[in-house]
Write a structure and sequence with these properties.
The complex is a heterodimer. Chain A is α+β, with helices and mostly antiparallel strands. Chain A has four domains: 154 residues, PH-domain like (Roll), CATH 2.30.29.230; 61 residues, no CATH class; 173 residues, no CATH class; 141 residues, putative rabgap domain of human tbc1 domain family member 14 like domains (Helicase, Ruva Protein, domain 3). Chain A contains 23 helices and 13 strands. In chain A, a hairpin with a 5-residue loop joins strand 10 and strand 11. Chain A is globular, with a radius of gyration of 29 Å. The N and C termini of chain A lie far apart (59 Å). In chain A, 38% of the residues are buried. By secondary structure, chain B is of the alpha/beta class. Chain B has a single domain, classed as P-loop containing nucleotide triphosphate hydrolases (Rossmann fold). Chain B contains eight helices and six strands. The longest helix of chain B is centred in the last third of the chain and has 20 residues. The chains are: A alpha+beta, B alpha/beta. Chains A and B meet through strand 4, helix 3, helix 5, helix 11 and helix 17 of A and strand 2 of B. The complex binds guanosine-5'-triphosphate and magnesium ion (MG). The site of guanosine-5'-triphosphate has 21 residues of chain B, from helix 1.
Chain lengths: 635, 224
């Protein structure tokens, strides 16, 4: 099978290049070491290839994204025989012709390759030296342009001269050379103007139609998706305003982003200090702030999560909690008994129940199975996962079981390890996010709209770009939101992220700012690669397990500070992050004509009746343009 | 033995290839994502996650000397997410209707999937749209099998007679063949649409099942 180098000429190669696998491994850090080369084949042209030399399973260096591996010294720890590990490290081949751009980061030691169709390839890490040689070799073989906006990004420009010619030639519309056709057209025009024109243009039209059919298709899909994602508004004036909430492209609205340092996790000693002798948790706000800034140490999760998820009240005593727990144990088993005592006969006549049960079964078998906690056949924890979900169906039969719930339960069960506590913590979590799972998807739709709104004030360029590329509905963030980033981060990171989010600090909907932060990191890549609807979707899907948690959290908090100190943040955005509306609730009642407020730095706010606000800015006159036909149904 | 080992695609000049949009539909858990991954990267992950939202992968495939780029769309099977899945049907060239041979319900739902597709893809001529009916998980033991090949064939006969194939994403049985078959079926229909007056009036597609969708023929065999 390994015939990579057999044919073809090797133009360049570099040993000891690590690949962090793109598969959804969340429990260990497995990197494969291999050789990255550029090879020219007679058939398919130049290719970038990476071929594994061995598989390293490295768990000691968990907290580093890239383990520095001395391939020789640790040979004993390799598991190249294992089928599963091997499968994570498949060879990679990218045709140079498909390359759209690449990004060089981490002291020039890391390279990410992106293809024209939106595929992002495994990130390559150069353990020995850096990627300079590789990049130089690449540049020797293709034309690249360094992005002006993102200095790490190198773009392979489309070849404009040949683009049209190639389309003509490859479509084989004209048997002759394209230039000849044009000349013939000109010559014949004198003799048979009408026929000549028609004939030639018929062919040309074919091309335009052909060229645009792919795009038309995307537009249609996006249009239908927009409709699906539109909230069923009752008021007519809200229609059409869902996505075009704010347009601030003309001017900077936000102050510079302040740094927001992360902190150490809550320690066992600290936690003890926050409890009085009866067990009341004191100074909860300070405590939450610590958790927001750094999470909690893993050993404390078992205890602290119960408070964060509302299972235990902060102001309860040890005694209260003991009593509460006893009660909750009883209540749980009562509900569990309800479904456990359904007889096979009953089940047969109870299709709603059967359906839910089958859904749970199917998903449980596919939830975090690479994690040791859930691995193997007949795993007992898997049974617990299933029992808790079935009991939740009895607890909330109307909602039932919806795909995604097993993802939310898994880390909780892993921390709690017992059925009852895991169940009640899960209930607490579901209370926070159950609108994601509603039948009409209204919760998801609303969040996508809110995200779009926050994006348009924070990253107006990107927001405008997305709109122009059929992506203003933010559907590509659907998975992020549905399971709160569960699929995007490693298991360790997701636990950290969730405990941070559960503090509800610094504002409501902070998770939306996290989305904005990720998009902030990606914005130049998306725009400079000129990605369209499908490529954007693909690029965002491919980000899974390649997002740095701490820097993203820090960025999201920075954005929060930017928004709170912005002078004229639109009310619709203010409300999402829990700020009082600027106009104040009174403005809506004062049925006054347009009033103009001058703010010292040249911003002009015009507020009208009926929540119609206009704010204008133009660089020349120093005005900010903000138009809004606000629908009042936002809350 | 062409090396299906690579994640990349195999042909130069991507713009030359005909791009075909393929959607894989079927109940949750029948193995849609596994089929796609087996086809695209020749890899099977027993413990892959269920799909949230939509995913797609591209893969080039060569059939009768012609290279096609398949853009394969995989969606979540659960009813709840229907409204977010159906927009992606628009503009499809090929539709794989998938069930698992060990899951009778998934087979019974084929008609629903077919109708959902026809409705939302806005296909005018349902009877001539290139569907392919795929019975996955053919590797399961005969005791676990709940849908026979004959039954599935019978269903196909009554529903526009699409080709039918039984596959296993797990052991790679018929997966490449399934996608090739789908493309051939597309190409065949396309040729007929392009040249309506050429050839005779016999519907060649109706002869296909005999030679092609012989699920019972290659069950348990390996891909070549
Ligand atoms: N025995 C066997 N199992 C398979 C095969 N293909 C898939 N599976 C298993 O069936 C389960 C479901 O496969 P998926 O590919 O996730 O199913 P899906 O149709 O994509 O499901 P949704 O994403 O929920 O719509 C997984 O646990 C796979 O391991 C197969 O050919 N044979
Ligand atoms: Mg799937």
């Amino acid at each position: 099978m390994d015939e990579l180098n057999d044919q073809g000429v090797e133009l360049y190669s570099h040993h000891g290049v690590l690949v962090k696998s793109q598969n959804q491994i969340r429990d260990d850090d497995s990197h494969c070491s291999g050789t990255l080369s550029i090879i020219e084949y007679s058939g398919i042209g130049k290719c970038i290839e990476w071929k594994p030399t061995e598989v390293l399973v490295d768990s000691e260096t968990n907290d580093q994204e890239w383990a520095m591996v001395n391939a020789v010294g640790r040979r004993n720890r390799t598991s190249s025989g294992s089928n599963e590990s091997q499968s994570r490290c498949r060879s990679v081949r990218i045709e140079v012709a498909h390359l759209k751009s690449f990004r060089v980061t981490r002291n020039r030691q890391q390279v990410t390759l992106m293809e024209r169709d939106g595929t992002t390839h495994s990130v390559f890490f150069f353990q020995h030296g850096n990627a300079d040689c590789f990049v130089a070799a690449l540049k020797g073989n293709i034309k690249t342009v360094r992005s002006k906006k993102d200095k790490h990004l190198y773009i392979v420009p489309d070849e404009p001269e040949s683009q049209l010619d190639r389309s003509f030639a490859e479509l084989e519309l004209f048997t002759e050379n394209t230039t000849d056709v044009v000349w013939k057209f000109v010559r014949n025009l004198h003799h048979r103007p009408y026929e000549t024109t028609l004939e030639t243009f018929a062919k040309l039209t074919d091309i335009w139609l052909f060229k645009s059919s792919e795009q038309r298709r995307e537009e249609e899909v996006a249009e239908l998706l927009n409709r699906s994602l539109t909230l069923n508004e009752t008021s007519a004036d809200a229609i059409g305003e869902e996505y075009a909430v704010v347009d601030l492209r003309n001017g900077p609205l936000l102050p510079p982003r302040p740094p927001a340092p992360r902190g150490p996790p809550l320690s066992i000693e600290q936690w003890a200090q926050f409890q009085d002798e009866d067990g009341h948790i004191v100074e909860v706000e300070i405590l939450k702030d610590i958790i927001f800034r750094g999470g909690v140490v893993p050993n404390l999760r078992y205890e602290v999560w119960k408070f964060l998820l509302g299972y235990f009240p902060w102001d309860s005593t040890h005694a209260d909690r003991q009593k509460l727990r006893k009660q909750k144990v009883e209540e749980y088993f009562q509900m569990k008994l309800q479904w456990r005592s359904i007889t096979p006969g009953q089940e047969q006549r109870f299709s709603d129940y059967r359906e839910r049960k089958s859904l749970v079964e199917k998903d449980v078998n596919r939830t975090d199975r690479t994690l040791p906690f859930f691995a193997g056949e007949n795993n007992e924890n898997l049974m617990l996962l299933s029992d808790i979900l079935m009991t939740y169906v009895m607890y909330n039969f109307d909602l039932g079981y919806v795909q995604g719930m097993s993802d939310l339960l898994s880390p909780i069960l892993c921390v709690m390890t017992n059925e009852v506590d895991a169940f009640w913590c899960f209930v607490g979590f579901m209370d926070k996010v159950c609108s994601n799972f509603e039948l009409d998807q209204a919760g998801m739709k609303q969040q996508l709209q809110q995200l779009h709104c926050l994006l348009s004030v924070t990253l107006p360029d990107l927001s405008a770009y997305l709109e122009k590329h059929e992506s203003g509905n933010m559907f590509f963030c659907f998975r992020w939101l549905l399971v709160l980033f569960k699929r995007e981060f490693s298991y360790q990171d997701i636990m950290r992220l969730w405990e941070v989010l559960w503090t509800d600090l610094p504002c409501p909907n902070f998770h939306l700012l996290l989305c904005v932060a990720v998009l902030d990191t990606q914005q130049h890549i998306l725009m400079e690669n000129n990605y369209g609807f499908t490529e954007i979707l693909k690029h965002i899907n491919d980000l899974s397990l390649h997002i740095e948690l701490d820097s993203t959290l820090s960025k999201a908090e920075g954005i929060y500070h930017q928004l709170t100190s912005a002078i004229c943040l639109p009310d619709v955005a203010r409300k999402i992050i829990g700020l009082d509306p600027l106009g104040g609730p009174d403005t809506l009642e004062q049925k006054e004509p347009l009033q103009t407020t001058d703010i010292d730095n040249g911003l002009k706010v015009e507020e009208g009746p009926e929540s119609l606000e206009t704010l204008t800015f133009s660089p020349r006159t120093g005005e900010v343009a903000f138009e809004r036909s606000l629908n009042l149904n936002y809350l | 033995m062409a090396a299906p080992n690579f994640q990349g695609r195999h042909m130069r000049q991507p713009s030359k290839n005909t791009l075909l949009k393929v959607v894989i539909l079927g109940d949750g858990g029948v193995g849609k994502s596994c089929l796609m991954n087996r086809f695209v990267s020749n890899h099977f992950d027993e413990h892959s996650f269920h799909t949230i939202g939509v995913e797609f992968l591209n893969k080039d495939i060569e059939i009768n000397g012609e290279v096609y780029t398949l853009q394969i769309w995989d969606t979540a099977g659960q009813e709840r997410f229907k409204s977010l899945r159906t927009p992606f049907y628009r503009g499809s060239d090929i539709c794989l209707l998938t069930y698992a041979v060990d899951d009778r319900t998934s087979f019974r739902n084929l008609a629903l999937w077919r109708n959902e597709f026809l409705y939302y893809a806005d296909v005018k001529e349902g009877m001539t749209f290139p569907f392919l009916v795929v019975g996955n998980k053919v590797d399961v033991s005969s005791e676990q099998r709940e849908v026979s090949c004959e039954e599935a064939r019978a269903w196909c006969m009554e529903n526009g007679n699409p080709p039918h194939v039984e596959t296993s994403a797990k052991d790679a049985t018929n997966v490449e063949q399934a996608f090739s078959l789908a493309v051939e079926s597309w190409a065949h229909l396309e040729a007929k649409l392009d040249r309506p007056y050429i050839g005779d009036t016999v519907d060649l597609r109706r002869q296909q099942p005999e030679q092609r969708s012989s699920c019972c023929l290659s069950v348990g065999g390996n891909t070549e």
